[in-house]
Amino acid sequence: MFYTEKCDFCGECLVFCPYVEYDKERAEKEMRELVAGGCPPIVGSCVTCAACNQACPTKANPFDLLNERQEETGSLGIPAAAFENFAKLSGLPTVIKQGEPGKPVMNLCIVGDMVREQLNSPLFKGVTTVEGADYFCTVGYVHLGKPSPVKKEAERYVEKLSLLGVDEIVCFHDDCYALLTTLADEFGIKVPFRPVHLFEYLYRVLSTQKENLRKVPIKVAYQAPCASRYTAEKDVYLDKLFDLLGVERVPRHYDRLNGLCCGAPLMARDKDRAAVVKGWNINDAKEYKADAMVFLCPMCFLNLRKLCRDAGMEALFISELCQRALPA
Ligand code: SF4
Ligand code: SF4
Fold first, then answer.
1. Which residues line ligand 1 (CB under 6 A)?
2. Which domains does the chain have, with CATH numbers?
3. What is the pTM of this model?
């Protein structure tokens, strides 16, 4: 949600944006036009990464306003087929795989098929998993420049999860965690269970066997998903995980606040630009001598893994990295 009263037109958001080269004057001008209801060029050139929400010093959430304007004007030029493909996700079968009593319940949203191999690990032993249409958070619509379905579907989504009747639900998909924390709060929806981020879950599991863990002494470049811009506070668990594992997070340029979008949202509308952004990311990780890139989002993983391997780095999903620390 954009907070008009918090915006003082300082322009810092658009000066910060890594995908355009705006000076302060242009940034201020376009922000004034945007807030006044217009459609300045940034609306169409935005890659929907949400980073400017995090960069705004007053927490006014400029991306949320850009995203609304993208929906009103269709400025992103997303092809109809991309909307149709995304809408099909709402038709995925709802599946509940019952685990062991007393073990956590984990929502896979619509990423189950992308991460099935990762789930076949002692890290997830006994967990009950839910996935498919009923448990689809729809947050990905923001990347199509169409945020309204996210709000529209949020109540249904929270209700379906609530009906599971548990105190905590682990979110495998970062988008789900963003919806159940920051976005639900903005939409005025009460969430009657505690959403647990995958980082926190993995940290808990590994902490119980701390004494037996093997060190994983590699240098990694972390690729944060765009949804993490809404929930930066949970990243403390990522640093705790890296500490526990003995992993070194390289201090690369495109990390933390400066993190880059993986390029997936650009693929439907501008493959050349997507390739440029991916190149910045991979080259940066390589320059800082990372042995591997570590991923939280299955889409980022699928989108960057080949480039990563071609550049001589491993591509590891966060749970794969954690798996390496388990005793043989
Ligand atoms: S949204 Fe934030 S960073 Fe952007 S102009 Fe307004 S106050 Fe400044
Ligand atoms: S959402 Fe990302 S790409 Fe769009 S203006 Fe903000 S920082 Fe730039």
1. 7-13, 31, 56, 58, 60, 62
2. 4-73 (no CATH), 86-202 (3.40.50), 209-323 (3.40.50.11810)
3. 0.96
